[in-house]
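Batch job 17 of 40 flagged for manual review because the log was empty.
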Amino acid sequence: MNKFTNRAGFAVFSVILAGAWLLTPAFKVQAKDAASTFDAKCAMCHAKNGSGDSPMGKSMKVPDLRSKAVQSKSDAELHKIITDGAGIMPKYGTQLSKQEITDLVAYIRHLGGKKK
C-alpha cells in the first residue's frame, strides 16, 4: 500500500506540475496578445503606457487609464466601455471578441500597477 500511495502521490504531483508548465506559456501569450491589441486599438489615443499623453489623447482629453478614477471601475464597467464605447470613444464590441476585451481589461489593470 505504501508503494501505491507514493506512486499515486507522485502521479498527482506530476500532473499538477505538467499542467502548470503547460499553462504558463498561455498566460504569457495572453499578455502579449493583449499588449498587441492595446497597441493596435488603444495606444493612438491612450498612449502606449495608458497615460493618455499622446497627441491625439491630449487633444481629446482622454482619461489616464492608470488613474484611480479608471482603476476604481469594476471589470464589468471597463468591459462595457470597451464593448459599447463611451463619449467620443468608439465601440469595439464588433471588432474584438469577448475574450480579447477581457484580456484588455486585465491589461488596463496591469498598466494601473505601473503608474509613476
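Reviewer: the log was empty due to a logging misconfiguration, but the result itself is present. The chain has a mean pLDDT of 82. Unflagging and moving on to job 18.
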